[in-house]
Model the fold of this input.
Amino acid sequence: MGLIVLLLAMALTGCGHIGLPLRQDDLDQVRTGARTLLLLRLIGTDQHGSARQPLVGSFSADPIGTGWGDFESGGQPLAWLPHSPSDAAWAEGWASMVLPPGYYYLAILPPRRTDAFTYAATLDQAPRWRIEVPAGAPVVYAGTLSLAERTEPGLLSTLWVGIDYDRSEVRDETAAATALVARDLPALPPPRTRLAVRQSGPIRLGVPPP
Amino acid sequence: MILARLLLLLLLPLSACVVLPVPLGEGHISAGREVSQESQGTLLVGATTRAEVLVRLGEPSAVWDDAGVVVYDWDRVQWLLVWVVGGAGRGAIGGMELPVHHMLLLQFDAAGILQRAEHAERPPGVGYGAFLRSWAAKGNGRP
Done:
């Protein structure tokens, strides 16, 4: 009952979620080469240069919405709860997943300005970025998705209200990703960089070339 | 499962809820781009190349290069599920489209020659990947 009330409260308030910690058995699979640790970073910057961790909500800023598509969904994004290597990494915008090689699709929705059900229904129309995880790479860094967010003056503070997708870009911060792995996941090798690209054309399925 | 469905049917009248499936005739395409029967008829197994398919049918919905599979998919809605809920002095009505997931599945050999062509309807509740994997496994031994 308490959980139901909590979930209802989250839906009503537009709460964000915390970065889930990486599970030990998942990391063991990375070490044995059975799966790959994917790293990507999300940063929101408004038109005045103010930055935020866009997956975290606050009094004046709802979090962005995210969806994740894969082979099983035919690339269609479904609700996604990212993990993160550590609390410090999460605060810096680092998200991670342990998964098999393949093509993946990250969908990004602007902060929610409507009810939860209407918002969720827009996920399959959201702009997507294609992420390629080749076989044989223990750690892959898919880039830093710098989201150009729009803010508007609110009654008490500035409100984060939308995303300008055309001005959003994927940046290469390989050095930062390498430092992150050395700091939080020292048992793993440095990441191989494979930058995400804005999806267009046919959905690609299967395993990308090395 | 049968008992649960029976129970649901018995409960529906008690809740003053009516659910009515309404046929829409030809219906409409709610997602994707339909490949007509005529266009499908131009594809010849053992002869048509992948490049020719792209010229005739346009850009596909999905490609699975590892298995030589190209997919064109679209949803056609031919039924609308209308629901009406009544209460003491109040009521509500709504509708939900019931799409049929169509897929034109094409499989090519390593030389890019069409080996299989099949129009299929993906059943409700069966995932895209599971359906595609199952279809490809019935083919020429590629994954």
Helices of chain B lie at 2-14, 37-41, 50-57, 128-137.
